[in-house]
Amino acid sequence: MQNFTYHKPKTLSDAIDALRESGGDVLAGGTTVVDLMKIGVRAPAALVDITGLATLEGHEIGPDRIRFGALARMAQVADDPALVAAAPVLTEALWKAASPQLRNVARLGGNILQRTRCPYFRDAAYAQCNKRNPGSGCAALDGGETGHHAILGGSSACVAMYPGDWAQALIAFDAEVRTEGPGGSRTIPFAQLHVPPGDTPEVETILRLGEIVTDIVVPLTPALKASHYLKARDRESYAFATVSAAVGVEMDGDTVRDARIALGGVATTPWRARAAEDSLKGGALTEATAREAGRIAFADAQELEGAAYKIRLGPDVVAGALMTAKSRAAGEK
Amino acid sequence: MTHDTVSLRAGISRRSLLGTTGAVSAAMAFGAGRASAQEAGAGAASDAQPRIELTINGKRRTLTVEPRTTLVEALRDTLGLTGTKIGCNLGQCGACTVLMNGARVNSCLILALSADGAEITTVEGLADPDGSLHPMQAAFAEHDAFQCGYCTPGQILSAIACIEEGHAGSADEIREYMSGNLCRCGAYPNIVAAIESVRDGKGG
After folding, report:
1. Closest partner residue to A102 among B91, B114, B175, by Cβ?
2. Which residue, A99, A100, A80, A97, is CA-closest to A88?
3. What integer pLDDT is reported at residue A303 of this predicted model?
4. Is B110–A105 a contact, with Cβ atoms under 8 angstroms apart?
């Protein structure tokens, strides 16, 4: 690992200044930053350790929304029984991610900003990576392995898949992200935080230098209560998603009043499947309509030889998740 | 000098000899990428290098580290606590698992500087001063829960925390919540049995 200067500011304002002056990276849990530094993908001149900023910790369930501090640890949040009851998709998307050791250290703010696991991005020996080395090409698209890449939201410059789980729950349920930066504070709808690769895959979010995520807020809705995170993957545990779905439903008798669907393991950014949601609203939720919603969610999937299996698997994952959400809406476990 | 000619008389181990000759060659090849760190008082420490305090197995230690020194490197190389192993070095295998402020963590992904002030428990801290094994250590021996032993310190620390967290309710839950510790020898069924026996208070 290249050496760097280490800063541990005592206030948010000092942290923002340290980031701007040093041009360095934020260090919170470190499970992404230290990993990338060890493999030579990132070599920041400075790390600004924000774990001393106590105001960014904790989480609370309020009357109409849940607030998560950006420094809340994945493990603490996942184990909160009140949250399990109020928003199962939010806790499932946490405990089904990573490992217990990682969840004890990783913070929510870092979790949503995690980087792709694309093997070409992660291996500096590959010169061809438009995300790591702008303008150099894409080793995956240039005859490489594409089995774990994106079939939604990709471009001719990059098909790196966004691997995070919790972000799918957030985008499905209209979360917002609050930040503090050199320009002051702002609130960003979660769906706007990440940007697809387009011609500039090195740009992954709209965050600016020195801007720090402080909170994540999720509105409470009936669909959030009858929600589920289904994660299909090569192993039973401790693997990234092959295809996953964060879903929730609100039923009015036998009619769907609200449906939420987001897809993991298949897109370049957190991915809301609105057309699939719309196909369910106002109608019955049966296995047939659930499968149709799944088909619609993947209808615009791009051709990618190695990842074609995701188009076959994906609708089943969506349908399965919806049926679990339906039983939760009916009060069953 | 080769291993064959090393004297194994009391006090000189291969590791301590390699440490001495290693330090000489490292000093000559400074900047080759190897982090250098020292325990406070062990020699001339650069004013530019930060000092941190860690409480390791109940004992307070002060050490000088580079910013890039990870916790596992500080434990093994600076403090000579080599019970904690490095497997993948990327937080993927769990061999480096230690307890930090009571929680199990991958020490290879934690910068020592960021652990300043923490209480750390390593495998060396589990047995009683009189040498009596921790119940989890005894259970691993009783249930043949290791073969090569390389993942074992991490498994044991992780297993202790798994029960403490309340995530050892069933064999399925144990498997899920021990999934962060890989074992290439495949001792998993016996690891689960060892954990169940400690959970049930059946001793080692």
Report:
1. B91
2. A80
3. 92
4. yes
pTM of the model as a whole: 0.93
Helix (H) or strand (E) run with residue A275 in it: helix A274-280
Q: Write the CB contacts of A240 (distance below 8 Å, at least 6 apart in sequence).
A: A117, A148, A163, A233, A265
A259 and B CB contact within 8 Å: no
Q: Please give the backbone phi and psi of residue B51, each rounded to the nearest 5 degrees, phi first.
A: -110, 140
Instruction: Give A31's contacts in chain B (Cβ within 8 Å).
Output: 91, 106, 109
Residue pair A179/A213 in contact by the 8 Å Cβ criterion: yes
User: For A243-291, how does the pLDDT look when each residue is reduced to its tens digit (9 = 90+)?
Assistant: 999 999 999 999 999 999 999 999 999 999 999 999 999 999 999 999 9
Query: Measured between alpha carbons, how far is residue B184 from residues A186, B3, B32, B160, B188 in Å?
Result: 48, 28, 31, 21, 9
Domain residues of chain A, as ranges? Answer: 5-52, 223-325
pLDDT digits (tens, 9 = 90+) for B73-120: 999 999 999 999 999 999 999 999 999 999 999 999 999 999 999 999
Q: Residue B68 and residue A39: Cβ atoms within 8 Å?
A: no
CB contact under 8 A, B68 and A1: yes
Distance CA A152, CA A149 (A): 9
Token pair in block for residue B181: 């510790």
Cα torsion angle, A148, A152, A158, A163, sign:
negative
Residue type at position B157: L
Helix (H, G, I), strand (E, B) or coil at B156: helix
Domain A5-52, CATH: 3.30.43.10
Give kind and range of the element (H or E) at residue A212: strand A212-219
Structure tokens at A262: 């987001």
Name the residue of chain A whose CA is nearest to B176's CA. A237
Q: What is the ipTM of this complex?
A: 0.96
d(CA A89, CA A78): 10
CATH architecture entry for A223-325: 2-Layer Sandwich (3.30)
Domains A5-52 and A223-325 share a fold: no
